[in-house]
Structure formats: structure tokens, C-alpha cells
Amino acid sequence: MCCSPNVLQMVIFMECCYSGSMLENLPENISIYGVTACPPDTEAYFCFFDGERQTFLAAEMSAVWMSYTEVSVLDKITFQDEFRNLQGQMKKSVPCEYGDKDVSMLTVSKFLKNSPASAGDTKKGLSPTDLVSFYEAPFRILEYQIEREADPVKNDALKKKYDDLRKTKSNIESAVEEMRKYCSAGGVEHATTATTSLNLNQLQHFKTVAEFFRTTCFNWHESQFQYALSQLNVFNKLCAAGVDTKGILEAIKQVRRTSSVFE
């Protein structure tokens, strides 16, 4: 894409857990600048809980970024200004920038032609509230519902759902930790490395491991197991450390067969 005659410059804003892993290898000389909500190994956050709708209305980075853009004259601010505003206004997530910093010095109006109607003198936008990590959000929503449910039967049902979800979270964490230890016990001392960057070959191995973990242990396509997605970073690190794919798959099978989590 960077070599296409139709693309002179590009700016990417990405918000999801571990989003830094998507752009950390972005070259600095191809006129592409990227901003992520968090580093490669951390989660992103939701914000602005709506009690009537019983859900979170936004994610932290997008809320800060869009609100700042809406109150700014776009030919007076650069993408670097937007990034610095993110750094100053985001309370939980840690924004990261990657790629060609020269592109970050361009005014936003080079990409977005019209300033919002609400724009005045450049100033800070809103500050997010009710911050909670993506994977903790379901628990926060249930806590809110439990606090406000007056019907005893419905309240008990919500409490059971909450307890079951907490137990599932604990089981997923325990199982993955057993798998990690199994790999480490195999003599791979660097299996706990903080490295998350994957080359193309390692990426294919990681996809194989992730899909095997999903189909063998916790299918995150089912709502009660969505927390399992938060644990994929463990397998990412194992693959980045050079742990043999067959060894990781064997660890998953071994824990699936023997762990009390699956009884």
C-alpha cells in the first residue's frame, strides 16, 4: 500500500487491546504515521458508562481524540498536537506513536478538509470518566445491574451470572498460566520474554496456536469465554521467544487433559 501511487501519506489511529503490536514494526521512512491506544502488551479502556443503556459509550482514546478534533481548527493543529493531547488527557491507556514522525507534523486539515462547526480556538476536549479495561467491562455492567435490581429472583440470577463469569475468568487465567509453566519447564528459559514482535513465520505459528487454544479450551466466540482473548498475549510472547509451536500445542493438550480447571 505504501508503494501505491494513489497513497502519498497515511495516518492510522488504532484502538484495541495490545494495539501497539500491530504497528510497532512500522518503518519510519514510508510516509505512514500511526497512533495506538496502548503498547503491545497492555489493554485498552472503555469510558462514559450510560446507566440507562447499561453499557459504555466510548473507548478512551477515540473519545479524547474525537472531542479534541471537534473543538479545534484543523489547519491550526498537527497530528503531533493530537498525540500530545492524548498523552495529556488519557488517564489509563498509554498512547504510542509509530512510523514516520515527519507526517505527524502535518496539519490535520491535510487529511480532514473541513473544521467542525463547533470548532473555535484550539482547546482541550473532554476528559473521560468511568474508565474500565475492555475485559473488565462485563463485570462492571453486571455490578451496576445487581445494585439496581429490586426483584429478589432477578437479583439472585444476576449474582449467579456474575459469580460464574468470575469463576470462568479465574479458570482461564489458571489454565493459561499452567500452559506457560509447562513450556518453561521444557527448558525454554526465555519463554517469559517481554518481546511481542512477530515475524511473518512466527505470526503464522501464533495463529495456529490461538485457534487450537480456542477450539480445544475456551471458545471466545461464546460470550462466557470472551475473556480468553485477553490471554492470547501469553502465547504471543511464547511464539516471539522462539518456543517451538509443537511444544506449545502439546502444553495446551496436556493442561486440557490434566488440569482441574476442566473437570
UniProtKB/TrEMBL annotation:
GO molecular function annotation: cysteine-type endopeptidase activity
One Pfam family from the record: Peptidase_C13
InterPro entries membership: Legum_prodom, Legumain_prodom_sf, Peptidase_C13
Any one annotated GO CC term: vacuole
Gene Ontology BP annotations: proteolysis involved in protein catabolic process; vacuolar protein processing
Family: Belongs to the peptidase C13 family.
Name this polypeptide is given: Legumain
Species of the source: Pygocentrus nattereri
